Amino acid sequence: MECIKKIWNAAVVGLVLLGVGCNGIGGQSNDTGNGKLAFAGCYAPNANTGNADCGLANSLGNSNVDAVFSAEINTQEQFWNGIPANVHPWNDCSGPNAISLPSGDILYGVNLFQQLVATYGGDAAPISGVLAHEWGHQIQFAYGWFANGQFSTPPIELEADAFSGFYMALAESYSWGSIDNYFSAVASKGDYDFNSPSHHGTPQERLAAAQLGYQTAIQAIQTGTQLTYGDLHQIFSTAIGGFRKRQIPSASASDAAATQILVRLDQSEILDILSGISRGKDVAVPNAGSRVRLYPTRD
Predict the structure, then answer these.
(1) Which residue ranges make up each domain of the chain?
(2) Would you state the pLDDT for residue 19?
(3) What is the pLDDT of residue 282?
(4) pLDDT higher for 201 or 126?
(5) DSSP string computed for 90-108
(6) How far apart are CA 263 and CA 152, in angstroms?
(7) Which distant-in-sequence residues (6+ apart) come within 8 Å of 147 by Cβ?
(8) Residues 6+ apart with CB under 8 A from 277
(9) What pLDDT sits at residue 53?
(10) What does the alpha-carbon distance between residue 263 and residue 277 come to, in Å, rounded to a whole number?
(11) Could you give the 3-state DSSP secondary structure of residue 31?
(12) First to last CA, the chain
């Protein structure tokens, strides 16, 4: 992965901010009848499924960036074992954004991508972390934790942040201190507009959720435990459920693997982040050799 990171950084240095085009002329997305979308070009106003903003784009900016982003997609496909997704560049013309659809499609906004490049100097971590967050929603869709047609809520978004943190440690092997840009990007998406339907958690809650996922990966490596998606959901939902009360339950009788991880979490670190005392102390990922055997599995 270190080689991929270097190639990525080199690729985005010369990124030209191009106009966003469509994959085809005058096409639209259609429901194929099996829950998947057939992408034939731009979304049309009368598209029945997945109609969003100005449709698909044909590139994130240039061919070098597209190639490295494709490599990142392949890495995440391997990691999120059993949870397939189709990732598409997308013209997020109403504002920088990324979307996960219940159809199994992830739309990665070109404007969002270019914003992350400009803000963080081409650092791969925020770009990969956003994709992992959206893949977390695909897990939720697959298991029915995020129902089709349901509006997103803070617990749903915070769990996706936790899945993202889990990926950044276990798959990418980042130390916590080396991904300052990643958690800055996570925290920047938080807000205090509690009465808004678009409220997805405060900056502190979103950062704490990422730390929760990160710590879970560290514990999985240290104990040699391969966790299922159900285990991860039990860990994340249990801990996130205590965020507002500043009390993280450490036991779950229904899931032994989840209980083993919950009791080993550094709760004081997570609570310090929630209270705004800390942004998370530097933690290095233990050297566990090949980590593929620890990648999450379906129940």
Answers:
(1) 1-123, 151-299
(2) 45
(3) 86
(4) 126
(5) E--TTSS-EEE-TTSEEEE
(6) 29
(7) none
(8) none
(9) 66
(10) 22
(11) strand
(12) 28
**Stated pTM of the model:** 0.84
Rounded to whole angstroms, the Cα distance separating 180 from 279 reads: 9
HSE of 16, CA atoms in CB hemisphere, 13 A: 6
Residue of 53 and 134 predicted with greater confidence: 134
Distances (CA, A) of 171 to 74, 122, 158, 221, 287: 12, 20, 20, 11, 12
Cα separation of 12 and 115, whole Å?
A: 12
pLDDT at 35: 39
Coil, strand or helix at 86: strand
Cα distance between residue 111 and residue 229, in whole Å: 31
Q: What percent of the chain has pLDDT over 70?
A: 76
Q: Which residues pair with 109 in a beta bridge?
A: 90
What does the block give as tokens for 230? Answer: 């159900």
> What gap in Å lies between CA 53 and CA 109, rounded to an integer?
10
For residue 80, with 0-12 CB atoms within 10 Å meaning exposed, 13-18 middle and 19 or more buried, which class applies?
Answer: buried
pLDDT at 25: 32
What is the total residue count of the chain?
A: 299
Q: Report angle CA 199, 205, 209 to the nearest 5 degrees.
A: 115
